[in-house]
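My current task is to audit a protein record that another person submitted. I have pasted the whole thing underneath without changing anything:
***
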Amino acid sequence: MLFFVACFAFLCASKSRQVVGTKLLTIFLVYNVASVLIILVTGIPFDCYIDRLRSFLFPMLFFYFGVEYRITSDKFYKSFLYSSLFCFVVGFFLYLFTPSFYVSFLVDIREQASYIDNVLDETTVLEYTRFSSFFGSSYAISYFSIPALCVSFAFLFRDKLAKKHLLYLSIIVCFLAALLCQQRIAMVSAFAVALFYSIYGTSHKNGILLPAIVILAFILIIVLNMYVDTSRLSTVSELIFNRFARLDFNDAMGERTGQYDKVLNAWNNIILGDGMGAHSGAAMIYKYVIVADGEYYRILVENGIIGITLFISLIFGSLKKAIINRRYLWMELIIVSFFLLAGIGANSLSVAFFYTPIFWFCLGRIWNKGYLERLKLDNKYIR
């Protein structure tokens, strides 16, 4: 399996027309794979390495699909958007109408979660549960809703796309999902993205963007009041408003400072790192000190000075390229920035393998010369 990952990375790198980003990503990926030697020498359970291999390294392979010069269509973005909307719409039904099997599912999830202290039954779980659709975790909604919101907004400015009224509806659905998941970064980002594209639309002959969204949102509220139990709507609204009242960055980081101090004190190999997975969630089972809420601390202690330098070089190089071509790459720039901001207080790139393919794909697209040439030629992002 490790041999396959390494061979795939080198094969893609050799066909990437000497793209700098691909070289950096490949070196970083292979460096992580090679850290298995540190894991074996130090005696850290191999399960920890496999867990991180699955959740952190495998999604990186989507970078190579994004950077491939000959792949310039929007099929991946469309598939991601449609899949996300399906999850949100089904989730809205479950979350608002609360069928009994779904309530039982939520109770089971809370009982199995080691990080939740208070156990709730079927009569109280709905008063505390955040929107998670059928994933069982609101993090999934957070990492799907903002990228899907960006894709929906960006597609509005592509002249050849018909049925734009459906995109307005898509924007409402994604925005609502971001609020209902009650994750700080998603809630703030949803408003920031909506504000940015509203201003962008005004300057690009799409001044009806904001009014259209407001009208659709108003209609949606009326429909919800007609069909959803008012007490349930009241509970959900209270959860959201209470979450907004507690949006304090200092408090959020203060909750995490303790684990950062502990993991830095447990950091053994400063140069090479303690090995991929040494401080993962799986390592908690074996009583190792873990980083549960801080992607950059995790990369630092697991990959060392060398690893964090490689990662920073890749990210800064990608952001620089995206900013230079921001006229065409706003969507990719915002999506990548969202995951990077989330990484300040969460393991946004390694918490689950199916959350992050969109991040790595967008990062690859930033380096895709063929994709950039297509956008310039078609002039789809600007009018």
Notes: The chain has one domain: 2-246+258-378. DSSP finds 17 helices and no strands in the chain.
